[in-house]
Amino acid sequence: MPPLGMSSTTPAPVLEFRHVGFAHGGLHQGRTQLPSMGASAERSIFEDLCFTVQPGEMVALMGPNGAGKTTLLKLAAGLLRPGSGEVMAQGRPLQQWPRRQLSCTVALVPQELEVPFAFRVEEIVAQGRVPHMGWFGGLRAQDVGMVETALHEVDLLPLRNRVFAELSGGEQQRVKIAIALAQQPRLMLLDEPTQHLDLGRQIEVMGLLRRLVEQGITIVAAMHDLALVREHCSSGILLIPGAPALAGPLADLLRAELLKRAYAVDRAALDRYLGAYPSQPTAGLPGAPNSNGARA
Fold first, then answer.
1. Where are the domains of the chain?
2. Which one, out of 50, 150, 230, 266, has a CA that is 20 to 30 A from the CA of 211?
3. pLDDT value of residue 50
4. Would you say the C-alpha torsion 175, 98, 218, 48 has a positive or negative sign?
């Protein structure tokens, strides 16, 4: 995929959450969160969530199940609207982005992709070009070229005519990333990209994401494996149930006292886990200053 150019001036954050609040339990319609009939039925996920993501970062989104990682990614993609505060992409509130234009800038790679029919890999990846197409137009030459580029980037050209349902878990994950690449985004959001993959495929996927960062795509990925986070990510966002989220360098976030609070795990067991994966600096990726509201 062609590298995305970076401005010589200081760029606006690729993604910014400004005092974002969100609660599950209301009625949702499109990108708007509507109030529920009874406030008591709502479950607060975020209150006053603040962080920024700068161009060229690879950010790990961490926290236990149910902490709101998927919700945060959907808010960042404009699929949900915050109950309070503002989500910004490239210095512009998401509400001001036309849906198609936003989809050409921000791509979301979900945990699961439902493909009910026997679609071929190439046909599925071509769906990533929909935001760039006219209302009644088919694929143009440039669209076909971008699909080809996306397949090449994830090493799927030999599998382009295979049926999606017949692929392995790792191959299906690469198809989902290829769809996002075909959108030509500046920001790629991934919901647990290594889920259900064996060790070899996890390493392959994380290596692919590192290459995309080198090409100018900013990555925010929900992750559980702290060893992979330490090796590949430049900074992180840690969601702690019942406490403010934290954002900043991994060295500040992957501390035993914070992880104990976030994951409700025994300190001795946590120390053994962390000792098994000694911290190693991530080479070649930009770092970040500290904590909640700071650059992620």
1. 118-179
2. 50
3. 94
4. negative
